[in-house]
Task: structure prediction
Amino acid sequence: MKNVAAIVVTHNRKTLLLESIDKLLEQTASPELDIIIVDNASADGTREALASYVEEKKVIYLATGANLGSAGGFHYGLRHAALNNYTFAWLMDDDCMPVFDALAKLLAYSDRLAGCFGFLCSKVLWKDGTICKMNVPRKSMYRKADDFAAEIVPVKIASFVSLLIPLKIVREVGLPLKEFFIWTDDWEYTRRISRKHACYLVNESVVTHASQANNGADLAKESMDRLERYHYLYRNDVYLYRREGAAGIIYNSTRLCYHVLRVMVLARQGRLRRIGCVARGTWRGLSFRPKIEYI
Result:
């Protein structure tokens, strides 16, 4: 067994996954690395496509048996890594394409910090080389990081797109909340860590997020057939910001009003249905209290 478990969660994106695996196999720190694929019940031939990688011991394949969402997938993968006594987990989606030395840079700063950190995250670019908007870490609960030149930058929140976590931290703070399913699971988890430990953006570690577009979730412009999943976003955000006390509740309330206003102004159809997603998710969030699971 090696020092680092790269945990890649996938669902029906075989082509991107294979490209991501190739990038992981090219890492200069590969002697330190096991590649663990957590397959959320893909039905696009992912298992068959990975057969030769598994046979040649290039990857470890874990089938969840159901679509657990990103939250459940990372919960599943981190549990596996902790139980198998890796030192670090390196988390990413199946469309994350790390530069050849991305892991080496993270490990170098781990050494420089003498292991005194909660997590390290990479600088995430989009396909055109600009900063990926959906993966900008936050330097506070309410302000995005804006320094992408300094060696390291203190941050409070980051995405699961190239996130290095010591497994001792996972054992301390518990696993991601699988009940989140999608959205905010990474923010909740990284904030849970940063409430106790210093955490950093490492700008010298670079990955590309090969998402379809360089933007985040936008209820006002989302297609009608993808609206229902937005209740997860608003439900999970209530949980996240409620934990921050009065400031978090005020911030989230203001944010909800802004999202409703955007729907009223920008949405071309289905305004009431979109606003209903906000209302339903927020209402469910008021009583949403999933239990943290520990190793």
